[in-house]
Amino acid sequence: MYGFSFATRIGLALALVLGATLPAPAQEAFEQLKQLDSSAKMPKLNAFSATTRGSLDVATELKDVTLEAKLTKDGDSMQQGLSWRVFSPFPGDDGKLPLVASSEGGSAAFQLVPGDYFVNVAFGRAGATKKLSIPSSGTVDKQVLVLDAGGLVLNAVSGPDVKIPPGELSFSVYSAEVREDGERGLVMADVKPDNIVRLNAGTYHIVSEYGSVNAAVRADIQVEAGKLTQATIQHRAAKVTLKLVADEGGEAIADTAWSVLTSAGDVVSESVSAFPSMVLAEGEYTAIARNKDKIYQRDFSVSAGHNSDIEVLMSALSSPGQLPADQAIDSE
After folding, report:
1. In this structure, what is the dihedral angle of CA atoms 115, 118, 121, 126, given to the nearest 10 degrees?
2. Where in the chain is the domain with CATH 2.60.40.180?
3. What is the pTM of this model?
4. Fewer Cβ in 10 A, N or C end of the chain?
5. What CATH number labels 237-330?
6. For residue 138, what are the contacts with CB-CB under 8 A and spacing of at least 6?
7. Superfamily of domain 150-235
8. Which residues make Cβ contacts (< 8 Å) with residue 41, sequence separation at least 6?
9. For this UniProt entry, which residues form the secretion signal (predicted)?
10. pLDDT per residue over 52-94, tens digit each?
């Protein structure tokens, strides 16, 4: 387990702990640490020397460095799920800070040459960074980084309490702040329901998508350090299955092209199938079926949580101006 306690309340900033001011090139390269993806594959190395400017005395004594991370200042040391990376503060030829050591799991132990380093620890999408100075004499104190992080589990229902199949749900997590261009920063996409997302404490903007047409809900959710926030989002939507039939309750007619329009006339779905299924947001719609140069249509309503079959009946031809629901006209 990751040491989360449970929280029931629903509502990004990386915690960076810095020491002395850096030279401009190192400071610019250090900004790249904010963009580190914790899912990146890194070599699992226990210890090796840092990359520094100038030559090193081969007799330089390596120093033992122990690193620990906590979710909160008063929490226990974490035993799993951590990604540690140690960087030289001097940018390489590519302008990036060279990686000099890494480790996966819980606490980490390295042997490093005396000098300055940046230590980054990631826990899912949460992370913290600290400047580390290793003296040439004496021992190095154990380094403890506080992630100030928590967990988030997302799920959704349709209507009051209709469970949505997990395969039809997806979530995207965005920062709460809106940028100058009017967009929000994407933190994590395609999050599946009931999965723990590890984040720095703060408020996040969540977009829940049910199906792939127009059923989307947005919510702001707060993640608290050391706690697991469980949020269930309510969708006002339902699944409908369309059928073109000769008689009520009859078999669906194959090779039918479908268009679904909103009450405002906007097309939200197009497909070719005997009985297409889709999730639609609550509201009024028109189903238009095209089969063998004929066009058929029907108006229908979608109520949240009420999945239904919509039958479009084939009937006698009529002029477009007098066309009632469920009847056909010749297509041009």
Report:
1. 160
2. 150-235
3. 0.74
4. C
5. 2.60.40.1120
6. none
7. Transthyretin/hydroxyisourate hydrolase domain (2.60.40.180)
8. none
9. 1-26
10. 444 445 456 899 999 999 999 999 999 999 999 999 999 999 9
